[in-house]
Amino acid sequence: MKQGDDYVTGPHSFWIHFFCGLVFGTAVGAVIGWQFFNSVRCIAATALIAGGSMGWSAGRWGDRAWEEALNLVFFWFTS
């Protein structure tokens, strides 16, 4: 590893976290939308909103956003 390389907080970190958050948020949003709505448009809208929100949060706050998101998901499915 070179002197200036920082793979945890480097410039690539935002987009990697954003993409992973987008995929995770879209999947969780689709499951939640499936439980609440019968319309495909409402399910897709819920999935897109959740995916965009999780993607932005994961990109902005990194691992702290993942910790809070997983706490919310475990709370949602265990209660």
Describe this structure in words.
- This protein has 79 residues and is mostly helical.
- It has one domain (19-78).
- Helices cover 78% and strands 0% of the residues.
- It has three helices and no strands.
- α1 (13-36) packs antiparallel against α2 and α2 packs antiparallel against α3 (63-78).
- The longest helix is centred in the first third of the chain and has 24 residues, at 13-36.
- The protein is flat and about 35 Å long.
- The mean pLDDT is 84.
Task: Please provide a brief summary of the model.
This protein is mostly helical and 79 residues long. Helix content is 78%, strand content 0%.
Which key phrases capture this entry?
single chain, 79 residues, mainly alpha, flat
For the report, how would you describe the main beta sheet? none
Secondary-structure-derived class: mainly alpha
Strand tally: 0
Global Rg: 15 Å
Count of domain modules:
1
> What portion of residues is helical?
over 70%
How much is the average pLDDT? 84
Identify the overall geometry.
Answer: flat
* String of helices and strands: HHH
Distance between the termini: 45 Å
Strand composition percent: under 5%
Number of helices: 3
Point out poorly predicted stretches: none
